[in-house]
Design goal:
Largest sheet: 7 strands, mixed
Strand content: 15-25%
CATH architecture of the largest domain: 3-Layer(aba) Sandwich
Order of helices and strands: HEEEHHHEHEHEHEHEEEHHHEEEHEEEH
CATH superfamily of the largest domain: Type I PLP-dependent aspartate aminotransferase-like (Major domain)
Helix content: 25-40%
Mean pLDDT: 96
GO molecular function, one term: pyridoxal phosphate binding
Keywords: Aminotransferase, Pyridoxal phosphate, Transferase
Cofactor: pyridoxal 5'-phosphate
InterPro entries: Aminotrans_3, Aminotrans_3_PPA_site, PyrdxlP-dep_Trfase, PyrdxlP-dep_Trfase_major, PyrdxlP-dep_Trfase_small
Protein name: Aminotransferase class III-fold pyridoxal phosphate-dependent enzyme
Structural class: alpha/beta
Shape: globular
Distance between the termini: 24 Å
CATH topology of the largest domain: Aspartate Aminotransferase, domain 2
Number of helices: 13
Number of strands: 16
Low-confidence stretches: none
Number of domains: 2
Strand order of the largest sheet: 4-10-9-8-7-5-6
């Protein structure tokens, strides 16, 4: 269960919370999962803080959806104003969606930045689903290559190439996996070539199976694989993908919008020029809006052979939320804040690693940080139990983080981009206290 939550063990909980969880299970069914041994019941948010019904204050160091902070006033105002004016689909000519696309496209650089298009959806899953439909139509093939523990969505198609959903969630027969760029256990300088060789081998296997390679899809911070942030890794991979006739799809749902600090889009850290970029989650600061950016040549045949329509994708209110979120990121220099606060957090945790042997590795970029917990440093043996204990003890002290990776032994620290020095101090002092205990 996610971060040690057990739906069959509620006796230790406050009766009111246990009743709410039982009601939730009855009304929403068994597929919905909660975080933590003692789930958090929230009723209000502001900036980097969440509050429960009793007024208890939590530091949110996990939520990248509200990248510019819970209930950001500028986003609220933009959404309210647009909802008070008009909310309808994209089959009418409207300036808002055009202005937003025109402002965004140059940020991608390369071919997309020069002549690319944007297409809008409601969620990152929909964006990845659309990207793969385009890639398969463009190439006439259906094979997809992803990393071993990737997550790319929960539609029928995207769940089929999201191995992190678990062994009981079947992968498509047209899916092949390659290792994640594990900079903790391999030479970082050799990772790009290692992954490119793996792509070449798997593309050959797809060809032998009669599928061929339609696309390679990667989250450039390898979030579900354990948070790996070595730059320049994906350059050789892109070359191998193109040599096999496939498209390179950069999944920026997690890594985009300035989160890595040094670049606005995570793939730019690797010096590549993708065919399609997908985005979602933080794009509207909690409002459901997502998109793809695509080169003209990749989408040309798809656009001429079939239409694309999404009832809610790109509606006026969604675009208002996206526009306001972008404005806050740029006007408040949140990309620079991600660089500065992220470095402060990594340095602080690295300092703790000098005292606590369970910390095997500290890695990440900007405000996306992975802390690998191990039973033995020399052997680099994953310690999922320790990671779960830390996550849950942090929660008891009202600091919210999570865990990730194939062994669930990597602490995932992914706060809103408005994280401050005071927030970083709270997180580091709490982590230190938990490790000492």
């Amino acid at each position: 269960m996610v971060n040690a939550f057990n739906p069959d063990s509620l006796a230790h909980l406050d009766p009111a919370l246990a009743h709410a969880i039982e009601r939730r299970t009855r009304l929403l069914g068994p597929a919905y999962r909660l975080f933590y041994q003692t789930p958090v019941e929230v009723c209000r948010g502001s900036g980097t803080r969440l509050f429960d019904k009793q007024g208890g204050e939590y530091l949110d160091a996990y939520n990248n959806v509200v990248s510019v902070g819970h209930c950001n006033p500028h986003v609220i105002e933009a959404v309210h104003e647009q909802m008070s004016t008009l909310c309808t689909h994209t089959r009418y000519v409207q300036d808002g969606i055009l202005d937003y696309a025109e402002a965004m496209l140059p940020s991608f650089g390369g071919r997309i930045g020069e002549t690319g298009h944007m297409m809008f959806t409601c969620t990152g899953s929909e964006a990845n689903d659309l990207a793969l439909r385009i890639a398969k139509h463009h190439t006439g093939r259906r094979g997809i290559i992803v990393t071993e523990e990737a997550y790319h969505g929960n539609s029928e198609l995207t769940a089929g190439f999201s191995p992190s959903l678990g062994e009981r969630a079947p992968l498509g027969t047209w899916v092949r996996r390659i290792p994640a760029p594990d900079s903790y256990r391999h030479d970082p300088a050799a990772l790009g070539r290692m992954l490119a060789d793996a792509v070449t081998r798997q593309a050959y296997e797809l060809m032998r199976a009669g599928d061929g390679l339609a696309a390679f899809v990667a989250d450039s911070l390898f979030s579900s694989d354990g948070v790996y942030a070595s730059p320049e890794v994906l350059g050789p991979v892109a070359e191998a993908v193109r040599a096999a006739g496939g498209l390179f799809i950069a999944d920026e749902v997690q890594a985009g919008f300035g989160r890595s600090g040094d670049r606005f889009w995570g793939y730019q850290r690797h010096g590549i020029d993708p065919d399609i970029v997908t985005m979602g989650k933080p794009m509207g600061n909690g409002f459901p809006v997502a998109a793809i950016a695509v080169t003209p040549e990749a989408v040309a045949s798809f656009g001429s052979d079939m239409r694309y329509f999404n009832t809610f994708g790109g509606n006026g209110v969604a675009i208002a939320a996206a526009r306001a979120t972008r404005e806050v990121i740029l006007n408040d220099n949140l990309q620079a804040n991600a660089t500065r606060i992220g470095a402060l957090l990594r340095d602080g945790i690295s300092g703790l690693a000098n005292r606590f042997e369970g910390i095997g590795d500290v890695r990440g970029a900007g405000l996306y940080i992975g802390v690998e917990m191990v039973t033995e440093r020399a052997a680099r043996s994953p310690d999922a139990a320790l990671a779960a204990r830390i996550v849950n003890e942090m929660r008891e002290r009202r600091v919210l983080i999570s865990a990730t990776g194939p062994e669930a032994n990597v602490l995932k620290i992914r706060p809103p981009l408005v994280f401050s020095d005071a927030d970083a101090d709270w997180l580091l002092s709490t982590l230190e206290a938990v490790l000492a205990a």
